[in-house]
Design goal:
Helix content is about 40%, strand content about 20%. It is an alpha/beta fold and about 200 residues long. It has one domain (about 1-30, about 85-195): Rossmann fold, CATH 3.40.50. α1 (about 10-20) packs across α7 (about 160-180) and α4 (about 115-125) runs antiparallel to α5. It is globular and about 50 Å long. It starts with a strand and ends with a strand.
């Protein structure tokens, strides 16, 4: 299980799309959300549902994790990846904390933007209104240290393709570690920071 997390506007969705496209041995679990679909956003970016539908799934025990974020509900459905593929979860910081608490062996990757100015520009490019941009930037400041706190591999998303490849290298090192637990890498299993600039 690979958890890719980070604040809004760091480019999680774009990087994960590039990662999945380049590596067919990975399978992405689509999160559910009650937030409206943004103009131009892909139909499969999330499973977009109303609040009643979301809460019914909570009651049925159908989520691995779920949380409220800035007034909307987000959740990861109980995943069923195909045989031979590693599971990728692209989730917010609250969700990452829940998943890691349940599965300490999950590989946690925390993405950050090169700067707060670039993060703001990305939020605006994707069409977030001014008040949502302000809310997400404020939340990002609160979550800035979450990657280190959780012992994640911290990567700075400067270039999409390079960041996706850096994530895949972390996954590969984790696979090697699990195959040879007596030959542990000094990187895997500890906080790791990489900028692909």
């Amino acid at each position: 299980m690979v958890v890719i997390s980070g604040p809004g506007g760091v480019g999680k969705g774009t990087v994960v799309s590039a990662l999945i496209e380049a590596h067919p041995d990975l399978w992405l679990s689509r999160s559910w959300t009650t937030r409206p679909q943004r103009p131009g956003e892909a139909d499969d970016a999330y499973v977009f549902v109303d609040e009643a539908t979301f809460r019914r799934r909570i009651a049925d025990g159908g989520f691995l994790e779920h949380a409220e974020f800035l007034g909307n509900l987000y959740g990861t459905p109980t995943p069923e990846p195909p045989v031979g593929q590693d599971l990728i979860l692209e989730i917010d910081v609250q969700g990452a904390r829940q998943v890691v608490a349940q599965n300490p062996r999950a590989v946690l990757i925390f993405l950050q933007a090169p700067s707060s100015a670039e993060q703001e520009a990305r939020l605006r490019r994707r069409g977030d209104p001014d008040h949502k941009v302000a809310e997400r930037l404020a939340k990002a400041r609160e979550e800035a240290d979450a990657g280190t706190e959780l012992g994640a591999h911290v990567l700075t998303n400067v270039d999409i393709a390079q960041c996706a490849e850096d994530i895949y290298q972390v996954i590969q090192r984790s696979r090697e570690e699990r195959r040879s637990p007596t030959n542990r890498s000094q990187v895997v299993g500890s906080a790791y920071t990489r900028s692909n600039g």
